[in-house]
């Protein structure tokens, strides 16, 4: 189905099932521990052996020699894979560095070997008996240093987006700000580590894995192994968190496949927690310079945002300026990305790449500007709202309720009671402050297909390679099919995460919900047609006059049970959603506002969040329950980003030092006292027949800055260097009395 | 993990003797620290002696009005004990500030005293670390040292001791009771139990090879107000940046011990004497000679400020 004109009224608008707060249909599997996660799939293939990864202990250089004899002779060992015996390997389109290193080493903890043994313990013990000699090479590991030395690269500046004359307008502006903000490297640290079981049948390979994007994984696995794509099958029905860390083929999958080939039997591999930070991808650190100029009336006249990040060869920059192109008005604009070469592990997408770190900076800058202008921070944002793409004023937004989000949030949170003067409110030990930030995340359209079958019991089965990374995909897809076919959720079966199914949008960039359900919608439209045709109901265009409800198909005074319509053989249909240039004609984005109250311990400067509110306008909310879970999870991640998460770089040797969950702190329950989420009523007919957009990343965007702004309100101390830890506040704290 | 043999000892003395007979043997109590380290091959004992069945999990009053805590008493039970909560509130609070409920259910009194550092380089076997591999160097010096020691460190090691419980034990003047492989017992004052790193950071206590902890004894209750303040980046389940344990008497005298600043829980007798003068005077004495790194220099003002807040709280 091609979607290139705004959606008219369609069966989804009935909202009998879609839009209802529905518990996860896969919930019982999870709460009873029976949802099959990759590493525990003992039943899918017999005779599984265990692989353990050996990772590089240098960041850059070469393997001079690698001695595997002792490991091979260790008890239970079946095979050892290194670059020496892995055969010729390609590199996936979406991998910056090879997943099996050697002889060249590109980053710390790059995999250099896999040991396969009868038991996990034997494999792990033998992995320590592999002796690798390295020749270390000099590398670049320090972003701040790289930024200083790289200078202005005219090639990179060519890509800058400019409108009007920023320099002149900034110069002339009576009120201005020119500040630099930094965000650190962050790790996804999802609960389930990367894990795969691989099995060969002749020249065909099946992997049971944990991956957000089935089609990408299959294509890159085939490419890396230099084998035909059709001979690779990827199965990933349940994923214990991904956050972008599982968007791509990673070492667990490749090494399981190589290990299985070498050992001649199925092999399972999980990355141990201490390897996750350096072996896989991470959100790269940024240094962001923001300049804003405004008139005394509070209107922005000039805005510039430049962001520096680093990456390996073939890696991309963190697109931290994206939101600045679209969020606020202003006639003179400049945004640009600067990429430095660094030999740290590959930087790549982590939940809301671009906007998450970008708003952490921009929304502090907006708070600072509001203060300089003596305007309320909420009003300052409202004053600078734009209903059109500022780079291209002919282009409207499909929907834009930023102002409504800000006003609703301010009212519900009690913003008017905030003392605008910093460091004035005290509650016992605590200095109390309130802060806010705008939330913004683009909505991405990408094609997505599905197959639906109707059987003679009236059961609708949906198959698509869409994934559920804990987001609730199973449930919203079931709701979509139920709505379309006029059946209850008990009559819908959803099968996901298998490359044998039609290719979907997958899970990433908050595009999963809208696109994958739109694909299911398209397939259901076809199935409805097939049903109607079989019953001879197909008169009017678009099946007007044919109703699917209560397990029946009705036309005029005829009514037939779906089960009967399906007949013994059943009916099946396959289709997908594809988009024309609709996203070009109007800008599709999601909007929100975050409000946070923090307490800062007057003596120790420990920052603790006291309450949080998010207001989101993100198209139709397909399931308010799972959407809320997404947003509160994202807000929690925002607390981590604001207050504690940082991969500490050892700039001498080039690795992330705190590479386990003792050293890389993420919020615990005690850090998250009270969260509230409000969804504004919205449907976006430009986004898809579902009229929905993404929301799972929006919930993160802006949270960090809202917290940093609240800390400022509590203490009068402006920290522009995340995370906002107590050591950055102590100097300015009032004396202890 | 390396292969190892395992035995269950019949008595404390037998356990100590077995340890002496098996070079490279280790006792295992709750296993919450040892097992993690064995999986990473930071600890590679060839033999494990399980001391869980030795009836060392009792608590009893001592004749002089103190409390004798068996080496195998679980952290949860110790923190919840009525006598501890009433008479040694500092200990109960310190325990509850540490780890998580699940871990405290397993963790033991002796194991807690002997838990090893959380220096991140100690945990990465690819990095030089004199504590893990004597003579290999110290990656933390000049590296990521935010968590590490500000005082008492050496050119060999700047690790901290991560225990909360031990800070309270030090402030309370506990005594560590042991039995040696030859069957002899001794009592080590807690202040002499943990060592500074010097040039042998791998030797962390005054225990001799094979020596088994049987109990930790607390003297008579001190009275006063007991406060334990653990400062950290998140609200729970994190090791201390700094911790202040204090017992303050109504007249302003008292004791103070610190966690998170040194290779051992930190207490200085002359500093205690300064308590009536306030946090600055105490901290000046406590941290005299401190040599922080640029990354952890914030711990010095943090100690003073935290102590100030503790003393204010004690005053009520
Ligand atoms: C995730 C995590 C978070 C934690 N957070 C904190 C925290 O915030 N604060 C804190 O203080 N602690 C914390 N801990 C550490 C925890 O307190 C220790 O792991 C625990 O106290 C160790 O006790 P155990 O009985 O399990 O010791 P084991 O692991 O069994 O043994 C530890 C050591 O003691 C030796 N040993 C044990 N018993 C004896 C004995 N009777 N005589 C001689 N030697 C003996 C063993 O040989 C071993 O070397 C944390 C641990 C984990 C895993
Ligand atoms: S500080 Fe101590 S524990 Fe840490 S690396 Fe240095 S020697 Fe090892």
From TrEMBL, chain A:
What GO MF terms are annotated?
xanthine dehydrogenase activity
Matching entries from InterPro entries are given as: Ald_Oxase/Xan_DH_a/b, Ald_Oxase/Xan_DH_a/b_sf, Ald_Oxase/xanthine_DH-like, AldOxase/xan_DH_MoCoBD1, AldOxase/xan_DH_MoCoBD2, AldOxase/xan_DH_Mopterin-bd_sf, PaoC-like
User: Which Pfam families does its entry note?
Assistant: Ald_Xan_dh_C, MoCoBD_1, MoCoBD_2
Alphabetically list the UniProt keywords.
Answer: Oxidoreductase
Q: Where in the numbering of this chain does the Aldehyde oxidase/xanthine dehydrogenase a/b hammerhead domain appear?
A: 32-138
Known EC number: 1.17.1.4
Q: What is this protein called?
A: Xanthine dehydrogenase YagR molybdenum-binding subunit
Q: Which organism is it from?
A: Azospirillum picis
Q: What is the lineage of its organism?
A: Bacteria, Pseudomonadati, Pseudomonadota, Alphaproteobacteria, Rhodospirillales
UniProtKB/TrEMBL annotation, chain B:
The family database entries (SMART domains) matched by this protein are listed as: CO_deh_flav_C
A Pfam family that this protein carries is: FAD_binding_5
Q: Which domain of life is it from?
A: Bacteria
UniProt entry tagged with the keyword Chaperone: no
Q: What is its EC number?
A: 1.17.1.4
The protein's matches in InterPro entries, at most eight in alphabetical order, are given as: CO_DH_flav_C, CO_DH_flav_C_dom_sf, Diverse_Substr_Oxidored, FAD-bd_PCMH, FAD-bd_PCMH-like_sf, FAD-bd_PCMH_sub1, FAD-bd_PCMH_sub2, Mopterin_DH_FAD-bd
Q: Which Gene3D superfamilies match?
A: 3.30.465.10, CO dehydrogenase flavoprotein, C-terminal domain, Uridine Diphospho-n-acetylenolpyruvylglucosamine Reductase, domain 2
Q: Does the record's keyword annotation contain Nuclease?
A: no
Per UniProt, residues of the FAD-binding PCMH-type domain are 1-223
EC class, as a word, reads: oxidoreductase
Enumerate the GO terms in the molecular function aspect: xanthine dehydrogenase activity
Which keywords has UniProt assigned to this entry?
Answer: FAD, Flavoprotein, Oxidoreductase
Q: Which PANTHER family match?
A: ALDEHYDE OXIDOREDUCTASE FAD-BINDING SUBUNIT PAOB (PTHR42659:SF5), XANTHINE DEHYDROGENASE SUBUNIT C-RELATED (PTHR42659)
Name of the protein this chain belongs to: Xanthine dehydrogenase YagS FAD-binding subunit
Q: Which organism is it from?
A: Azospirillum picis
């Amino acid at each position: 189905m091609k979607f290139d004109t705004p959606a008219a009224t369609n069966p989804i608008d009935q909202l009998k099932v879609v839009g209802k707060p529905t518990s996860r249909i896969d919930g019982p599997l999870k709460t009873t521990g029976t949802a099959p996660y990759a590493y525990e799939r003992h039943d899918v293939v017999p005779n599984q052996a265990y692989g353990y990864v050996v990772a590089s202990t240098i960041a850059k250089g070469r393997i001079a020699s690698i001695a595997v004899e002792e490991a091979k002779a260790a008890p239970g060992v079946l095979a050892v894979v290194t670059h020496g015996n892995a055969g010729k390997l390609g590199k996936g389109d979406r991998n910056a560095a090879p997943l099996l290193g050697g002889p060249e080493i590109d980053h710390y903890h790059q995999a250099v070997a896999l040991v396969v043994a009868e038991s996990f313990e034997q494999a792990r013990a033998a992995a320590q008996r592999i002796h690798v000699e390295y020749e270390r090479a000099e590398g670049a590991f320090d972003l701040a240093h790289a930024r200083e030395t790289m200078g202005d690269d005219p090639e990179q500046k060519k890509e800058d987006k400019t409108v009007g004359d920023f320099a002149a307008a900034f110069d002339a502006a009576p009120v201005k700000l020119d500040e630099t903000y930094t965000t650190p490297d962050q790790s996804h640290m999802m609960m389930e580590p990367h894990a795969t079981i691989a099995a060969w049948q002749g020249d065909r390979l099946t992997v049971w894995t944990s991956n957000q994007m089935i089609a990408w994984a299959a294509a890159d696995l085939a490419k890396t192994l230099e084998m035909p794509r059709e001979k690779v099958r990827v199965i990933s029905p349940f994923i214990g968190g991904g956050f972008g860390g599982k968007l791509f083929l990673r070492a667990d999958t490749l090494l399981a496949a190589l290990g299985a080939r070498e050992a001649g039997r199925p092999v399972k591999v999980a990355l141990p927690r201490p390897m996750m930070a350096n072996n896989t991808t991470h959100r790269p650190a940024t240094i962001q310079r923001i300049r804003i100029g405004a008139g005394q009336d509070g209107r922005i006249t000039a805005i510039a945002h430049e962001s520096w990040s680093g990456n390996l060869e073939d890696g991309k920059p963190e697109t931290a300026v994206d939101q600045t192109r679209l969020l606020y008005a202003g006639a003179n604009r400049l945004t640009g990305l600067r990429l430095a070469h660094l030999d740290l592990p590959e930087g790549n997408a982590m939940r809301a790449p671009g906007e998450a770190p970008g708003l952490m900076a921009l929304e502090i800058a907006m708070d600072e500007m509001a203060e300089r202008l003596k305007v309320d921070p909420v009003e300052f944002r409202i004053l600078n709202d734009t209903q059109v793409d500022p780079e291209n004023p002919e282009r409207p937004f499909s929907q834009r309720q930023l102002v409504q989000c800000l006003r609703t949030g301010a009212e519900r949170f009690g913003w008017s009671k905030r003392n605008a003067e910093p460091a004035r409110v005290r509650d016992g030990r605590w200095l109390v402050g309130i802060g806010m930030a705008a939330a913004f995340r683009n909505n991405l359209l990408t094609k997505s297909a599905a197959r639906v079958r109707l059987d003679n019991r009236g059961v609708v089965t949906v198959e698509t390679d869409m994934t559920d990374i804990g987001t609730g995909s199973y449930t919203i897809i079931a709701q979509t099919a139920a709505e379309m076919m006029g059946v209850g959720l008990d009559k819908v079966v959803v099968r996901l995460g298998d490359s044998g199914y039609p290719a979907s949008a997958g899970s990433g960039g908050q595009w999963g919900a809208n696109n994958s359900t739109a694909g299911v919608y398209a397939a259901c439209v076809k199935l409805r047609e097939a049903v109607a045709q079989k019953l001879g109901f197909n008169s009017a265009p678009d099946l007007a006059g044919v109703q699917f409800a209560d397990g029946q198909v009705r036309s005029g005074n005829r009514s037939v049970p779906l089960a009967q319509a399906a007949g013994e053989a059943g009916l099946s249909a396959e289709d997908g959603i594809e988009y024309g240039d609709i996203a070009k004609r109007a800008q599709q984005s999601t909007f929100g506002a975050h409000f946070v109250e923090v307490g800062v311990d007057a003596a120790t400067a420990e920052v603790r969040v006291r309450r949080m509110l998010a207001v989101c306008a993100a198209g139709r909310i397909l399931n308010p329950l799972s959407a809320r879970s997404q947003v509160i999870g994202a807000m929690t991640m925002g607390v981590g980003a604001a207050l504690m998460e940082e991969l500490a770089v050892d700039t001498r040797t080039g690795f992330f030092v705190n590479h386990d969950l003792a050293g890389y702190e993420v919020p615990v329950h005690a850090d998250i006292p009270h969260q509230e989420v409000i969804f504004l009523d919205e449907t976006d007919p430009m986004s898809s027949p579902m009229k929905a957009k993404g929301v799972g990343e929006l919930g993160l965007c802006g949270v960090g800055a809202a917290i940093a702004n609240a800390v400022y309100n509590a203490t009068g101390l402006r920290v522009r260097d995340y995370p906002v830890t107590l050591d950055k506040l102590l100097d300015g704290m009032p004396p202890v009395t | 993990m390396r292969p190892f043999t395992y035995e269950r000892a019949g008595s404390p003395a037998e356990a100590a003797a077995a340890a002496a007979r098996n070079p490279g043997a280790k006792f295992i109590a709750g296993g919450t620290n040892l097992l993690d380290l064995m999986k990473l091959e930071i600890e590679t004992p060839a033999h494990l002696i399980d001391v869980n069945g030795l009836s060392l999990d009792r608590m009893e009053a001592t004749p002089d009005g103190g409390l004798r805590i068996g080496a195998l008493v679980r952290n949860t039970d110790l923190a919840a004990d009525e006598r501890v909560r009433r008479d040694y509130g500092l200990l109960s609070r310190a325990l509850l500030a540490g780890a998580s409920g699940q871990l405290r259910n397993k963790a033991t009194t002796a194991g807690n005293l002997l838990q090893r550092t959380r220096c991140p380089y100690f945990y990465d076997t690819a990095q030089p670390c004199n504590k893990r591999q004597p003579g290999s160097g110290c990656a933390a010096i000049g590296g990521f040292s935010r968590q590490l020691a500000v005082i008492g460190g050496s050119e060999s090691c700047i690790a901290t001791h991560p225990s909360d419980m031990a800070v309270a034990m030090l402030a309370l003047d506990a005594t560590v009771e042991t039995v040696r492989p030859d069957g002899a017992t001794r009592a080590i004052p807690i202040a002499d139990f943990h060592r500074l790193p010097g040039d042998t950071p791998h030797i962390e206590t005054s225990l001799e090879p094979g020596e088994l902890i049987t109990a930790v004894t607390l003297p008579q209750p001190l009275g006063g107000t007991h406060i334990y303040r653990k400062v950290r980046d998140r609200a729970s389940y994190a090791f201390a940046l700094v911790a202040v344990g204090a017992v303050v008497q109504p007249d302003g005298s008292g004791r103070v011990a610190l966690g998170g600043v040194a290779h051992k829980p930190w207490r200085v007798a002359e500093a205690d004497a300064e308590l009536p003068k306030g946090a600055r005077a105490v901290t000046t004495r406590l941290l005299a000679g401190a040599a922080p790194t640029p990354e952890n220099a914030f711990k010095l003002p943090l100690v003073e400020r935290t102590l100030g807040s503790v003393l204010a709280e004690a005053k009520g």
